[in-house]
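Crash report, auto-generated. Payload:
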Amino acid sequence: MPSIRGSIDIAIEKCKGCELCVVACPQESLQMAKEINKQGYHYAVLLEDNCTGCTNCALVCPDAVITVFREDKKTKERIPVAEISKVTSDITIKVN
Ligand code: SF4
Ligand code: SF4
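Recovered output after restart:
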């Protein structure tokens, strides 16, 4: 079990199925779903409970659909650490 617990949210309806996040994840936590989204793409899903919140997946996602969280050890609160937005104009990358 990793010492830092992380988790991610994937906006699956916006995923284009490029698989870059799957390759970039050092924990091998991500896989492509067998199901397809409304755009017709297989989307990425978090399968393993071993995410460290490293942010790799969010940084490589060309469609900026992944938000990464790390868990506060005391409160168990999910704290956002990487959120990419505005990819169609001036890109904003925020890594805490
Ligand atoms: S934050 Fe890091 S460990 Fe967690 S799913 Fe993304 S690439 Fe994998
Ligand atoms: S990198 Fe982004 S668009 Fe590509 S499969 Fe992962 S979540 Fe989907």
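Post-recovery validation: The CA atoms of residues 21 and 61 lie 6 Å apart.
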